[in-house]
Each structure stands twice: as structure tokens, then as C-alpha cells.
């Protein structure tokens, strides 16, 4: 097969919950180009790809079960070939890295392997959560690499912080990466021209070989039940097992149906903040919840979740 021209690619990184999917959805809904998306998740991907808005026809490819910096290199090649070889291939590809991924191995692969003939790495973008940035820098080695290699940082969640916190966050970013462009945003409301089509990387640029060790004790698991959950028991589980443990549960997201309410809901929890919104996509019923954290006792979560789903039994 002959490819007429290389497809530009932007890598989108940033720590768990910083707003990467929100940014991807912004770009897609700008309708500017036919985007293809590669979604990489530390956990299973079914919830995450369900949260990517329906693309017109650029396609979504999923790489789950680990960060791109850790899973086999083949996965990225297969995902990109899959998109590029579509009948109606994307004009531009966004690679959404997992919230724990180091962007360098993915950039190296795009720049130095056979993929170089197919795609052009245009830019590395990082989302940063202004509210949690300081905490992330302190606790997570992954968070630093994501910012250090970015061409542009979208300093997101400006609506959640005072000006002073926003400026402090910008300072942290500039200390790590003095030449980076910082764009402040709420709900990743940036124009496509601010993060794509930048030709931000010098053609000869190669990231120096390095390796970010993931912080210890990272855990992810998915809790599922085929039946809708009783609302009150769920609220108690959410409060006690997720919200009350912000240092341990870094991220939770899921699609959940409740016995007492119509339609499924999307739960998004970043540390102690959470939202519930109606989910408009297709859902098989029941509940599916991805949890990512440090040193979590999976068995404890599974047992508690089973008690939520049970119609009878002791309170949580
Ligand atoms: N208040 C507020 N919430 C935001 C903003 N941007 C994103 N969110 C919310 O934060 C949560 C996480 O956003 P995502 O876009 O899923 O974050 P992510 O970086 O893709 O998350 P992971 O892939 O799990 O690492 C969602 O509930 C978003 O709606 C913002 O600027 N302000």
C-alpha cells in the first residue's frame, strides 16, 4: 500500500485526571479535521474509549493494560497502522497517553522506527491539573517527565483555583521546562491551533534515552456487576472507599446504572473531587468502574463492591 503523505501526530500526556480526554474531545468536536485517536490506558480501556466522543470516521484504537512506556512497542505500531490503513484514514492522529505514561518511549518510537515513514511527530502536549499539580509533583515521578518534555502545557482546571495557585502551578511547570508554552484553560477549552499543527519539534530532535521509574505500588482494577446498583449503598461505598482515600485512590471512573434512576451515569473522580453526569452512549446495563491508586487492597474493594451489588446483606 502507498501512503501519499505522512500523518501528523500529537502526543497528549499529563497526569491522571488532568483533562487529556477532555482535550481530545474538544479537538474532535472542533470539527476542524478528521481526527483519529489512539487511547492508551493503565487500566482496561472499555470505560475510557467509551468516554471519547464519537468520531466522524477517523477511528479510535485502544491500547490497554499498561502504559505505552511499558507495554510492547508493537502495540503502538499496530494501532497506528490500523488507523492509517482505514479506507477513510484520519487527517491527524492524537495519541492520548495513560495518566502514568512517560512520553519519551512513545516519542522515540515515532521518531526512530519504521513509523517515521508514516507519521510526523508534530508536538508533545501535556495537560496539567492546576488544583493538584503541586501534590502530583511531590508524589509522582511520572508527572514530572510528562511536563518536562512537552512542547505545550495546557494548564487546566483554572476554574477550580485562585489566580495565585494558577501562577504557582505555572512556575512549577517553567522550572521543569523553561521553554514550554503554557496555555491556561478550563475544561481544556483551547483552540486546535494552540496544540496541533505546531511543527514544534525540530526534525533532528531525539529525546535523550532515559527511563522514568513508575512510583511504587501502583494498582489498577475494574469492578463490574451486570445489575444496576442501589443508590444509597453505592454512595456509601463511594464515600468510604474512594473519596475518603485521596492519597491512595488517584483516579476512579466508570459508567453506572442505579436501580432508582433512569439511564446510566458517568462517574469521574479525581482525588476527592467527583462528578456524576448522564451518560449518553450505549451501555449494557449494570456498572463498570476502573480504579487506579497506590497500594490498594484489590480484594477489599472487590468484597465491598459485591456487598454494594448484593440486594441484601449487612450495611457497608
Ligand atoms: N472543574 C473542571 N473539571 C474538569 C476540567 N477539565 C476536565 N475536568 C473534569 O475532570 C475529570 C477528568 O477529566 P479527563 O479529561 O477524563 O482527564 P484525563 O486526564 O483524561 O484522565 P485519565 O485518562 O484518567 O488520566 C472529568 O470529570 C472532567 O470533566 C476543568 O478544567 N475544570
Automatic annotation (TrEMBL):
Annotated catalysed reactions: GTP + H2O = GDP + phosphate + H(+)
Gene3D superfamilies per record: CobW-like, C-terminal domain (3.30.1220.10), P-loop containing nucleotide triphosphate hydrolases (3.40.50.300)
InterPro entries (alphabetical): CobW-likC_sf (IPR036627), CobW-like_C (IPR011629), CobW/HypB/UreG_nucleotide-bd (IPR003495), P-loop_NTPase (IPR027417), Zinc-reg_GTPase_activator (IPR051316)
CDD domains from the UniProt entry: CobW-like (cd03112)
Entry annotated with the keyword Hydrolase: yes
UniProt-listed SMART domains: CobW_C
SUPFAM superfamilies, sorted: Hypothetical protein YjiA, C-terminal domain, P-loop containing nucleoside triphosphate hydrolases
Superkingdom: Bacteria
GO CC terms, sorted: cytoplasm
Domain CobW C-terminal: 218-309
Keyword hit for Hydrolase: yes
Sorted UniProt keywords: Chaperone, Hydrolase, Nucleotide-binding
GO molecular function, one term: hydrolase activity
Family: Belongs to the SIMIBI class G3E GTPase family. ZNG1 subfamily.
The protein's name in its UniProt record: GTP-binding protein
Organism: Rubrobacter taiwanensis
